[in-house]
């Protein structure tokens, strides 16, 4: 082999080895950094741009794609201890010309965290209304989507600010009484009885606890490498004190059944999506909403747990699009009548 060609392969091999070694080192030594890079890359690939909005001295962080058009904009509210990027799995299956907004909930990720803030469900709904006004999202009624804690907030928002929204999607929302205790509720009761309430199953501090939380939240069993579990824990640990405070706030009497207390005030067309095997919030909550909200559209997903957005992203995206198309068709028929 020609010496120059051999040197070229050696140089090329060395050049390729650098990023490969960097990737391996990141995976082994700094898995949390790799997770952040992963979300950054995914946002970029899907065309989601990160922006900030300020209401007085309060800062909201959000990502968006598209511009307001003839179809309603969609605002998405994530669940407890999550962040705006949890919606990326669904964004992947939504049209690129649809205006999407995913906001970090109060105290989460890039949105302001303050010890003086009101983190009750009604307090969070007020903050989200401030955000909506900041970016002028309510110039036209928009479609509101919320999951888990975010579903609780979304339902209260729909009841408190009915003029802002045209329709609502609640994905396994919190804030409802249940006739059947879920596995999570049973675990909480056991912890209360043993006076170990600081060991909340949704606030892991070790890779083992993270694996247990994933099993609790998901019916689908994802095979997650130990290093990724460690990375997920490393990302969360600096925020665990806040998560404990937040959890106690939303589990308090003031917020525990906020959605139930407000659901009779919801007038917007409503869609409910729930995983049949949800171990965090029992699926019986779907019937509670169906009985209280007129013309409520309920979809129960088989072989799916609490993490509907992660387990069934394509199905969830399609259900939302079909619901919006149905409402658009009904609206057109009314105009033609």
TrEMBL record:
Superkingdom of the source species: Eukaryota
Looking at the UniProt record for this protein, which Gene Ontology cellular component terms does it annotate, in alphabetical order? AMPA glutamate receptor complex; late endosome membrane; lysosomal membrane; mitochondrial membrane
> A Pfam family name for this chain?
Abhydrolase_1
GO annotation terms (biological process): acylglycerol catabolic process
Report the transmembrane regions from the record: 6-39
Q: Which UniProt keywords apply?
A: Endosome, Hydrolase, Lipid metabolism, Lysosome, Membrane, Mitochondrion, Signal-anchor, Transmembrane, Transmembrane helix
Occurrences of domain AB hydrolase-1 (ranges): 72-313
Predominant location category: membrane
* Compartmental location: Late endosome membrane; Lysosome membrane; Mitochondrion membrane
GO molecular-function terms, A-Z = monoacylglycerol lipase activity
Question: What catalytic reaction does the record list?
Answer: Hydrolyzes glycerol monoesters of long-chain fatty acids; 1-dodecanoylglycerol + H2O = dodecanoate + glycerol + H(+)
**InterPro entries, sorted:** AB_hydrolase_1, AB_hydrolase_fold, AB_hydrolase_sf
What's the EC number here? 3.1.1.23
- Give the way it sits in the membrane: Single-pass type II membrane protein
Q: Among its keywords, does the record have rRNA-binding?
A: no
Q: Which family does it belong to?
A: Belongs to the AB hydrolase superfamily.
Function recorded in the entry: Lipase that preferentially hydrolysis medium-chain saturated monoacylglycerols including 2-arachidonoylglycerol. Through 2-arachidonoylglycerol degradation may regulate endocannabinoid signaling pathways. Also has a lysophosphatidyl lipase activity with a preference for lysophosphatidylglycerol among other lysophospholipids. Also able to degrade bis(monoacylglycero)phosphate (BMP) and constitutes the major enzyme for BMP catabolism.
Q: What is the protein's given name?
A: acylglycerol lipase
